[in-house]
Amino acid sequence: MHWCVDKRENTQCICSVQNMKSEFPASVSPKESENSSLATVASLERDLVLLGLKSGDTVFVHSSFKSLGPVDDGAGTVVRALELAIAPDGLLLMPSFNLVEKVRRPATWNVATTPASTGWISEYFRTLPGTVRSDHYSHSVAARGVRAAEWVCDSGPDTGMKSPWDLAPWMLTFGRRSPLFRCYERGAKVLMLGVGYDHATFIHLLEVMDWNRRLQTDEGAEFLWIDRVAAGVAWEKFGLFASGRVGRAFCRLFDLSVFIDTMLFHLKSDRSLFKTWPKHSDA
Fold it and tell me: 91, 123 in Cβ contact below 8 A?
């Protein structure tokens, strides 16, 4: 293991980089099963391509392992299928958040060892050789593939939008250097692999962009939380997404920038999607 280090005045951003080869433990070497009810690397890759993933895509994945049904050799099979669907020049990203009680997050954070709180596939993905993880105490993102280190360890100026999760010495949570903002800015897709909009934490980017828009004309504007399920219902009425089965999981695939831009415009006339959460929410 070695480290990707960004030394700046009064802060240090460290991202763990573990041997940038695309390797998998021997225990998860993909193989076809004689039992056709088991999802395999080949069957999952086929489903992902039919859904709309293609070579060279950058994709941010929210996932539920259980939703897929039986999977031959477990989470490694899922990750391998995702990588093959976007090979050879794709980039795969997953949330690697630290979602313990909010006041405990800074003290419990270690970029190399803190488990991802965003599902078994995300945690498995975090521990793979070659995975790079951003150093953010709360909203970390893990990545593998082309330009992975650039997306999560870039040492450029820390500028952009403020959010309720900003805390020195870590980077702005949704600033211009943040992985999720880069997903928006650089045309990444979102894959909701067997999860609903209640698990769609990328909606925080929508909340932050709406808030920063309102701050331009009202310095005292309050940060507002979005009802994710209601936002999903509103979004799907536009029909700008693909859906289908991957294994047994119902999935959705769409461009993050299209989602954000469409919903930002929608929020100008529909404020009913906002809800009140406790000030000390652990989101």
Answer: no
